[in-house]
Design brief:
globular; 19 helices; about 475 residues; alpha/beta
Length: about 475
């Protein structure tokens, strides 16, 4: 399998090199040169398989010769053996039509664990035979940071620097990052939003002098390997609801477009996806882009769903690449214009192409709270604010009655205890495995959202390239 950059000018890489690289050297994001496909019989054969066996079958075409199937299986067994549910990502029925895909049974109670537990092991495997020390830099709106830190803490040949927006993540999210005291973990709270943090990470990759001193890599969903791992649970859920003989729709709470793009990849591979519903909160750049062609950056409004408080959705570039006919030069020009003007208009033909698979919805705080309360009262289930946004969008979707709708439940409700309690009157309890979280020592540094300050901090603590 060969990987190309969305902007057309970076070297073509194999799976191992694309995993270690993260962001492409031309500022683009890596994608497979061609989409692999699974035939109808191959999809049908996934029914009844374990999550690990499903993962091997779905990911093997993307891995290519970088790992044998036996090695890939071993890594998957190690990654998903840390989950606290035998099904890894179980399906739970809410009513006659709506289902939840619970993605929060990993070590840090969020869907990011599904990909990052595997990514940490891939880093370790690929570095084991290299005289290279990896400097991982990442930005988080809450859950990526804790999941990446859990996956990489204490691992050899890796340092991780994680930026989060100061005061804009939940107390549980913050403590899951800042109470990990492994010497290779560095938490940085910045003054600003997640978009500011994400821009700083991209700027470090783009700074040739700085990037040349360190072997930089990424754990955000700009890293293809992370996105690849998320494709698996779309297949796992769909075959349990009748695929390939029955199409299934998915409602995905999203800010950075990574999780829903994984559903797009599943559809490109042949999974019969009836619709991908892009569910946003009031920070609705993705809804505006898909519904009206208005991909323009506004101010970030802090909400009770902080992981979606995003205006610049990095992974949207991957969809734009396909909508531009996979013309890297054309997309590079469009993205350069967007980065300077902070606005882009999607032409009607692009919107029409996207609309064949994507729908979108903007969910306001009242509708989010109502979805939490409804799930509690009618199904005796507590759901977090992000999942509630997905569920509200699912219930408002215009779909044939026979199509089941799966909402991706992206976080355990205990990660957002205050918001859940306000909406439902019930305060979710932390699972026993993290019950002592608020007694642990915290460690992090508070810095301005300034590239020079961040680079100086990283340079003082990272291991330079040999």
């Amino acid at each position: 399998m060969r990987y190309i950059s969305t902007r057309g000018a970076a070297p073509v890489l194999d799976f191992e090199h694309v995993t270690l690289a993260g962001l492409a050297s031309d500022g683009g994001l890596y994608l497979p040169e061609t989409w692999p496909s699974l035939g109808r019989d191959e999809i049908a054969s996934l029914a009844g398989l374990s999550y690990v066996d499903t993962a091997v079958a779905v990911m093997a075409p993307f891995v290519g010769d970088a790992l044998s199937r036996e090695d890939l299986r071993g890594l998957c067994e190690a990654a998903y053996g840390r989950f606290h549910h035998a099904a890894v990502t179980p399906l739970v029925q809410l009513d006659a039509r709506n289902w939840l895909l619970e993605l929060f049974h990993g070590p840090t109670l969020a869907f990011k664990d599904v990909a990052l537990q595997l990514l940490g092991l891939l880093f370790e495997r690929f570095l084991s035979n290299r005289d290279t020390h990896l400097t991982v830099v990442g930005a988080t709106s809450g859950d990526t940071g804790s999941a990446a830190i859990d996956a990489l803490a204490g691992r050899a040949k890796v340092d991780i620097f994680m930026l989060h927006p100061h005061g804009r993540v939940s107390d549980v999210q913050r403590r899951q990052m800042t109470t990990v005291l492994a010497p290779n973990v560095h938490n940085i709270a910045i003054d600003g939003s997640f978009d500011d943090a994400q821009a700083l990470v991209k700027a470090m990759f783009a700074d040739r002098d700085f990037a040349g001193r360190f072997s930089l890599s990424a754990v955000n969903s700009i890293n293809w390997a992370r996105l690849m791992a998320q494709v698996v649970y779309y297949f796992y859920a769909a075959v349990r609801l009748g695929a390939p003989d029955r199409p299934v729709a998915f409602s995905v709470p999203t800010g950075n477009f990574g999780d829903v793009f994984a559903g797009y990849v599943a559809a490109k591979m042949g999974l019969p996806v009836a619709k991908l519903i892009v569910a946003t909160n009031v920070n609705d750049i993705l809804h505006r882009a898909l519904s009206a062609g208005d991909y323009s950056v506004g101010g970030v409004t802090p909400t009770a769903a902080p992981s979606m408080d995003i205006q610049v959705s990095s992974n949207f570039e991957r969809l734009l690449f396909d909508l531009h006919g996979r013309d890297g030069a054309a997309l590079a020009g469009a993205m350069q214009g967007f980065e300077s003007s902070r606005t882009m208009t999607l032409a009607q033909p692009m919107r029409d192409t996207a609309a064949a698979l994507f729908a979108s919805a903007r969910i306001d705080p009242d509708s989010m709270a109502l979805a939490m309360r409804s799930a509690s009262e009618t199904a005796c289930m507590l759901i977090d604010p992000h999942t509630a946004i997905g569920l509200a969008a699912a219930r408002g979707a215009d779909l044939p009655a026979e199509v089941p709708v799966v909402t991706l439940a992206t976080a355990h409700p205990a990660k957002f205890r205050d918001a859940v309690e306000r909406a439902t009157g019930q305060r979710p309890l932390l699972p026993a495995r993290i019950a002592g979280l608020f007694e642990r020592e915290e460690r992090y540094d508070h810095l301005p959202a300034d590239l020079a300050a961040i680079e100086a901090y990283v340079a003082e603590r990272a291991t330079p390239t040999r």
